[in-house]
Specification:
By secondary structure, the protein is α/β, with parallel strands linked by helices. The chain contains seven helices and seven strands. The radius of gyration is 25 Å and the shape is globular.
Length: about 280
């Protein structure tokens, strides 16, 4: 009986792996572009870390038909910047010669064209010429690309952490000294003044799916991942830490990558990607 059960389990696992492979093969081909970083921390290789983490999770899912199993390290933001510089040059020429039809009918003034890669959302177009050339060079139907929007402990994250800390401090106040004593054991007997301080590192990032042939953004999601820790102050005694560290930074990156990968995989399973 055990042998039969083991055989059936093996067949089910094998069947699941084959189904996953078929799904990937039937899925339009993709390449994963390296994240861009719109924060002041763009020189600490945050883009490389997040790109590798997300790519690893998408590859592990077995649900995407990747033409490359590594991140495409190409500065898409720079190529778009160079294109815009040319558009500005054309606009200056048009203004000098009074040819405003050329100015306002140019590609740069198309209302559906995203002004930057970080601003590109569903229904907008990212330079069709540049996107098509990348897709052609990598034999891919779609580009997956993301942007790090916020990183660190700015106001966008501080408010969330402050709310958590306030809730913890309120709970301690309601419990009183006797409650703190029960919670903290012998140390709680010293709790004439109990407070909880929260610190954390957050990463806010988005991800988009771009159709290579047209440059159209067909899917877009934004998430915020974080890692927090707390320090409990009981009188003059401190339990835990409120200091930021490298481990928290990596855990925040890991949390963000999991959230964004899960969002993309979930919508793929729901049939919301690669729509005709």
């Amino acid at each position: 009986m055990n042998k039969i059960t083991a055989l059936l389990s093996a067949l089910l696992i094998c069947g699941g792996m084959q189904a996953s492979t078929v799904l990937a093969n039937d899925t339009p081909s993709c390449v994963f572009m390296k994240f861009t970083d719109d924060t002041r921390f763009d020189r600490i290789e945050s883009t490389g870390t997040l790109s590798d983490l997300v790519m690893e999770k998408l590859l592990t899912s077995g649900k995407f038909n990747f033409k490359e199993t590594k991140v495409i390290d190409e500065n898409l933001e720079k190529r778009l910047y160079d294109e815009r510089a040319q558009e500005f040059a054309n606009a200056r020429w048009a203004m000098n010669y009074g040819n405003y039809s050329v100015l306002f009918e140019g590609a740069g003034f198309n209302e559906n064209k995203a002004q930057t890669i970080a601003a590109a959302t569903v229904g907008q177009f990212v330079s069709p010429g540049i996107i098509a050339s990348i897709g052609l060079a990598n034999k891919a139907d779609y580009l997956i690309q993301g942007t790090i929007i916020n990183l660190g402990t700015g106001n966008w994250l501080d408010n969330k952490i402050a709310n958590i800390a306030q809730g913890a401090n309120t709970a301690m106040s309601v419990m009183g000294a006797s409650g703190a004593a029960n919670l903290l054991g012998p140390v709680g007997m010293l709790a004439s003044n109990v407070s909880v301080k929260k610190t954390g590192v957050g990463v806010q990032a988005d991800l988009r799916l771009i159709k290579a042939a047209t440059g159209e953004v067909v899917w877009h999601k934004c998430v915020t991942g974080s890692d927090t820790q707390k320090q409990v102050n009981v009188g003059f005694i401190k339990i835990g830490s409120d200091k930021l560290n490298n481990d928290m930074y990596y855990k925040a990156m890991e949390a963000t990558s999991q959230l964004i990968a899960d969002a993309l995989i979930s919508d793929l399973d729901a049939g919301k990607l690669f729509l005709k």
